[in-house]
């Protein structure tokens, strides 16, 4: 699976852009704030329906325009496909193969992506929400059923919490909450089950990748930290109703899950050095690639947003070894990092003020 063409109309700082990708390594270089990351954002949104940078559609529309449009062509082993996203000020519509989708699940799985940005280097040290987001993005694109249960769980949780918050100001009958609890537990248990299986499978790959990257000096484990197990979820949730009413929020559930990075029995989240955390984050991204390959029998597209400059030579080499087998879109301010590592670019693009040039050829009008 790889990308062949990207068209942008009034997206961010691009009025009209047509890009043809190489199936190998595509490097976009130029100064900051010229539009490099906007290209990766458009690809990411075509795969997931979401931006990795903002929740507001209007921020993705070029100043002075009313709408933006993304069109991405994908070539698979047996079929070609196309994803179109029309973005308005407050909503967006999605088409797969020129047919409108009814549910987001119909988009997920058409393109497998792994994105690595400087923000991901903080995935180990950041808050639990960052690690839950990592799990949810990966699992959702691998299995749309998971996304369906996750979305349903959060919708039910929001409704339950609204009742709990209401109880802080006025009386709420406990029986009203029981209407939501059974369905909340049903979807929540599916989320927990999928996450546990995912962390177990990923953890096995992760141990191997990290051992290789650290030169056999470190052993790491991924541990799924859920605050409730499926078999006792309902009982504990209902037993805690009075306390939840007092607090105005739901205590038990997968919305409080976390991942422990255990390096030689040390919690990296608390005690890890910057170098150890970056190695852990890099290993995690390489493990994502391997897991998609194993489960879907296809290589994901890798997006690297100005991340090589954040890694030392050793970690750069480990990452570059992976780049030889998959399609990659890389942004950077210069190509020196790549030349130093003897990385051969299959397509080299210069980005300047919303325009993209390839070996002297202008790519947008």
Describe it.
This protein has 365 residues and is of the alpha+beta class. It has a domain at 121-297: Glutathione S-transferase Yfyf (Class Pi), Chain A, domain 2, CATH 1.20.1050. It has 10 helices and 16 strands. The chain has helices at residues 36-48, 128-142, 144-169, 174-213, 230-239, 241-247, 268-271, 274-296, 313-323, 336-340; strands at 2-11, 14-20, 25-29, 68-75, 80-87, 92-96, 99-100, 113-116, 220-225, 258-263, 266-267, 301-305, 328-332, 347-352, 355-358, 361-362. The strands form 3 sheets. The chain has a 7-stranded mixed β-sheet, sandwiched between helices. The longest helix is centred in the middle third of the chain and has 40 residues, at 174-213. It is globular. The relative contact order is 0.17.
Termini gap: 29 Å
Tell me about the largest β-sheet: 7 strands, mixed
User: Largest beta sheet: what is the strand line-up?
Assistant: 8-12-13-3-14-15-16
Q: What fraction of residues sit in β-strands?
A: 15-25%
Descriptors:
seven-stranded mixed beta sheet; Glutathione S-transferase Yfyf (Class Pi), Chain A, domain 2; 365 residues; alpha+beta; 16 strands; six-stranded antiparallel beta sheet; 10 helices
Protein topology:
Blueprint: E1 2-11, E2 14-20, E3 25-29, H1 36-48, E4 68-75, E5 80-87, E6 92-96, E7 99-100, E8 113-116, H2 128-142, H3 144-169, H4 174-213, E9 220-225, H5 230-239, H6 241-247, E10 258-263, E11 266-267, H7 268-271, H8 274-296, E12 301-305, H9 313-323, E13 328-332, H10 336-340, E14 347-352, E15 355-358, E16 361-362
Parallel strand pairs: 3-13, 3-14, 8-12, 12-13
Antiparallel strand pairs: 1-2, 1-4, 4-5, 5-6, 6-7, 9-10, 10-11, 14-15, 15-16
Helix pairs in contact: 2-3, 3-4, 3-6, 4-5, 4-8
């Amino acid at each position: 699976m790889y990308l062949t063409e990207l068209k942008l109309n009034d997206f961010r700082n691009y009025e009209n852009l047509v890009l043809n990708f190489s199936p190998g390594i595509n490097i976009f270089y130029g100064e900051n704030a010229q539009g490099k990351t906007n290209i990766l954002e458009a690809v990411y949104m075509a795969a997931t329906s979401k931006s990795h940078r903002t929740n507001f559609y209007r921020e993705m529309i070029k100043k002075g325009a009313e709408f933006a449009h993304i069109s991405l062509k994908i070539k698979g082993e047996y079929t070609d496909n196309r994803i179109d996203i029309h973005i308005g000020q407050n909503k967006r519509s999605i088409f797969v193969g020129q047919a409108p989708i009814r549910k987001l699940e119909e988009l997920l799985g058409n393109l497998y992506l792994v994105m690595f940005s400087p923000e991901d280097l903080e995935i180990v040290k950041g808050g639990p929400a960052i690690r839950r987001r990592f799990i949810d993005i990966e699992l959702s694109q691998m299995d749309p059923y998971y996304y369906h249960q996750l979305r349903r769980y959060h919708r039910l949780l929001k409704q339950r919490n609204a009742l709990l918050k209401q109880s802080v100001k006025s009386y709420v009958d406990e029986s009203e909450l029981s209407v939501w609890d059974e369905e909340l537990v049903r979807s929540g248990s599916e989320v927990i089950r999928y996450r546990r299986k995912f962390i177990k499978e990923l953890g096995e790959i992760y141990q191997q990748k990290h051992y290789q990257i650290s030169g056999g000096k470190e052993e790491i484990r991924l541990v799924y930290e859920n605050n409730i197990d499926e078999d006792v979820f309902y009982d504990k949730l209902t037993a805690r109703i009075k306390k939840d009413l007092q607090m105005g929020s739901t205590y038990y559930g997968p919305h409080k899950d976390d991942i422990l990075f255990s390096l030689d029995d040390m919690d990296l989240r608390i005690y890890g050095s910057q170098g150890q955390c970056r190695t852990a984050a890099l290993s995690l991204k390489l493990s994502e690639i391997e897991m998609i390959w194993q489960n879907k029998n296809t290589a994901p597209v890798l997006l690297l947003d100005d991340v090589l400059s954040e890694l030392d030579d050793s970690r750069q080499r480990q990452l570059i070894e992976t780049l030889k087998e998959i399609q990659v879109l890389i942004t950077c301010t210069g190509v020196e990092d790549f030349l130093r590592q003897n990385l051969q670019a299959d397509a080299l693009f210069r980005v300047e003020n919303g325009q993209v040039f390839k070996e002297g050829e202008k790519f947008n009008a």
